[in-house]
């Protein structure tokens, strides 16, 4: 069974006002060596990371453990952590120290300065770069439903953005972000990465911000399309679906089935629709590339990856989790519901803080 690891970016917020607080230095300085906490681009956020796990129950325990550790360290610094993909409240983020972040600010201007966004990155093990690229080629149409399910960023700078995942729109400002073409081989993937870096538009390979890519550090495919999820249970569902998509794609590759020859333009439109509508309207169907109700698209995803989910023992967990997401709504739905009840974006953040470590 393929192993899975999850990285979650979390906001650091004021316990009273809900505004982002630049205390990542204090949070990281107080963290124990065994606590998987890392700095991110902005001082108002921190990243957690699990170890590779094969059982979703074990992964769930780790996700909650590191959320709890981040919460404990944030409180010691006079703040809280919130699993929000963007801050609902107006903010002016401050870059973390370091030469690389300084260079990013100089090169990319407002794109870097305003980039206070929090994603969820799922690492799924692969046997080789060749298998990994074959997977990347075949999962492309199925990533937008993951974005719609995880969408958790409706507010931006104190305003309702009109989107379920405005993080996806802000993240798309980076020059290499978004969906990619079919590569066909590991050699062509690496050649494309080298060519992109040689243009001078990217600082280094770390700025290959594809929706899914080969990890530089681990023998994994890294699926990066999701918002950080408000509820840790949703993170587990996204991770289980990501593993099933990787396994389904690898089986298709071994069976000689070619990838869907859909263009990057159509994939960008599908991502836009997922970020705009979440689960509240139509999505672009990954097979027909026509509009279809969100529930129909998610059911198609479950059918597509069903055999792999079943073989991993994850089918019941994912079906139950998907039903819960549709019943409750994704993170964006929850945030808007709180705001509709209270008219107070600070209350939205307070509820997010509660749910992050619930």
Automatic annotation (TrEMBL):
Residues annotated as transmembrane: none
Keywords assigned by UniProt, alphabetized: ATP-binding, Ligase, Nucleotide-binding
InterPro entries on file: GCL_type2/YbdK_subfam, GCS2, Gln_synth/guanido_kin_cat_dom, YbdK
Top-level class of the enzyme under EC nomenclature: ligase
PANTHER family, sorted: GLUTAMATE--CYSTEINE LIGASE 2-RELATED (PTHR36510)
Catalytic activity: L-cysteine + L-glutamate + ATP = gamma-L-glutamyl-L-cysteine + ADP + phosphate + H(+)
SUPFAM superfamilies noted in UniProt: Glutamine synthetase/guanido kinase (SSF55931)
Ligase among keywords: yes
Name the record gives this protein: Putative glutamate--cysteine ligase 2
Natural source organism: Streptomyces macrosporus
GO molecular function: ligase activity
Protein's UniProt keywords contain Nucleus: no
Function: ATP-dependent carboxylate-amine ligase which exhibits weak glutamate--cysteine ligase activity.
Its EC number(s): 6.3.2.2
Family membership: Belongs to the glutamate--cysteine ligase type 2 family. YbdK subfamily.
């Amino acid at each position: 069974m393929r192993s899975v690891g999850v990285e979650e970016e979390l906001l650091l917020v004021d316990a009273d006002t809900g505004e982002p607080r630049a205390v990542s230095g204090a949070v990281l300085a107080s963290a124990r060596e065994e606590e998987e906490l890392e700095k991110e681009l902005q001082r108002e956020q921190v990243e957690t990371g699990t170890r590779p796990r094969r059982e979703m129950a074990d992964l769930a325990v780790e996700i909650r453990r590191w959320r709890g550790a981040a919460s404990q360290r944030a409180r010691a610094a006079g703040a809280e952590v919130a699993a929000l993909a963007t801050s609902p409240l107006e903010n002016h983020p401050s870059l973390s120290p370091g030469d690389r972040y300084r260079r990013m600010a100089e090169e990319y201007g407002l794109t870097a300065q305003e980039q206070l966004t929090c994603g969820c990155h799922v690492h799924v093990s692969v046997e080789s770069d060749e298998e990994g690229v074959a997977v990347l080629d075949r999962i492309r149409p199925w990533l937008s439903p993951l974005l719609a399910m995880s969408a958790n960023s409706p507010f931006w700078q104190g305003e309702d953005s009109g989107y379920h995942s405005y993080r996806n729109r802000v993240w798309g400002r980076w020059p290499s972000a978004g969906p990619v073409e079919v590569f066909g081989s590991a050699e062509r993937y690496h050649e494309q990465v080298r060519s992109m870096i040689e243009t001078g538009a990217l600082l280094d390979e770390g700025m290959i911000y594809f929706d899914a890519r080969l990890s530089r550090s681990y023998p994994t495919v890294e699926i990066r399309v999701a918002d950080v999820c408000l509820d840790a249970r949703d993170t587990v569902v996204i991770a289980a679906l990501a593993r099933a998509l990787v396994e389904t794609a690898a089986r298709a590759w071994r069976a000689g089935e070619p990838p869907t020859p859909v263009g990057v333009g159509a994939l960008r439109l599908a991502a836009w629709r997922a970020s705009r509508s979440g689960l509240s309207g139509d999505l672009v169907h990954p097979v027909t590339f026509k509009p279809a109700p969100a529930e129909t698209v998610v059911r198609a995803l479950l059918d597509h990856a069903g055999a792999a989910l079943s073989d991993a023992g994850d089918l019941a967990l994912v079906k139950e989790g998907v039903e819960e997401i549709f019943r409750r709504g994704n993170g964006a739905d929850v945030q808007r519901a709180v705001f509709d009840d209270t008219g107070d974006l600070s209350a939205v953040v307070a509820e997010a803080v509660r749910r992050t470590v619930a």
